[in-house]
Amino acid sequence: MRLQGKVVFLSDADSPSGRAILVRLSEEGASLLLISDSNGADIAEELELCRARGTSALVDRVDLCDGDQIGRLLDRTERTLGPVDVLVHNRSLVLPTSVESCDERTFDESLNVNAKSAFIASQAIGARMAARGAGTIIFVGSIHAEKPTGSAFAYSAAKGAVQMLSREASLALGRHGINVNHIQMGPVRGDDAVFRSDISTLYEDYEYKVPSTELATYRDLASLIVYLSGDEAKHLNGADIRLDGGFLNHYLDIKMNMPSSGGESS
C-alpha cells in the first residue's frame, strides 16, 4: 500500500470528489483527517467501509477560513493520528454569476469557499510541514482557472486564484521540502447542467468534445491524488496537471467525435 503511515487531511469529505478520494486513500493505507460539514452523516457508508478495512479516520467540522480552528484541530490530530503529511484541498462551490449582475455577497462566498479556505488551510498546515521539513499539498482546481465558463465567473476567478496560490506556494514551501501541485479538473458527468450558459456552447454535447468521448470520474481524480501523495512523485512540484481527457484541446463543435447513424465515429 503506497500511503501506509501517512496522514491525509481532506478538506471536503462530503462532496462527490471527497467520497471517492477518501475511499481510494483508505485502499492505499492512509490515515484520514476528514473535514465534513455534515459531521460524518453524509459519508457514513464510506466511513464504515474504511474502518472495516482498518483505516484510522477522524471526522470534524471546522471553518477552513479560520486558521485558529484549524490549528486546534491539528493539535488534536497529532495526539491521535500524528502530524499531517498530505493536505488535499478539494473545496468547490459553483454559483451562477455574471460580471454584469453578480452581487458582492455572492462573489465573496465563492472566493471564501474556493480560494480563501485553500490559502488559510495551506498556510496553517504548511507551517507545520515546514517545521518537519516534509509534506505534500494538493489543490484540486479546475480547467476554469484558465477557460471561462460563460456562466459562473466568480468560480473561475476563485479557481484562477487557487492555481496561482499553488505556484507561489511551490516556491515558498518547496524550500522546506514540501511538494505543492495543482490539478485542473475537467468535465465530469453532470457538468453540462452545472455550467449551463446562455453565451457559451462549451458544454453542449460536451462528452463528444473529449477525444475519447469518455468523461473523467472522481475515481480517476482520486487515483491521481494517490500518486501525487506518494514517494513516486517526490520530484513533482509546482505543476498544473490537467485531468480533462483533452477536452480543452478539442472543445469546438467542428469535427467532434460524434457517433454516426451507422454506429461509427466521425
Automatic annotation (TrEMBL):
The source's domain of life comes to: Bacteria
Q: Would the keyword Ribonucleoprotein be found if you checked this record's keyword annotation?
A: no
- Keywords (A to Z) from UniProt: Oxidoreductase
Put simply, this protein is called: SDR family NAD(P)-dependent oxidoreductase
Spell out the coiled coil positions from the record: none
The enzyme's E.C. designation:
1.1.1.-
MF (Gene Ontology): oxidoreductase activity
Q: Name one Pfam family in it.
A: adh_short_C2
Which species does this protein come from?
A: Cohnella cellulosilytica
Matching entries from InterPro entries are given as:
NAD(P)-bd_dom_sf, Sc_DH/Rdtase_CS, SDR_DHRS6-like, SDR_fam
* Family as reported in the entry's similarity comment: Belongs to the short-chain dehydrogenases/reductases (SDR) family.
Instruction: Indicate the secretion signal residues.
Output: none
Q: What class of enzyme is it?
A: oxidoreductase
List the SUPFAM superfamilies hit by this protein, alphabetically. NAD(P)-binding Rossmann-fold domains (SSF51735)
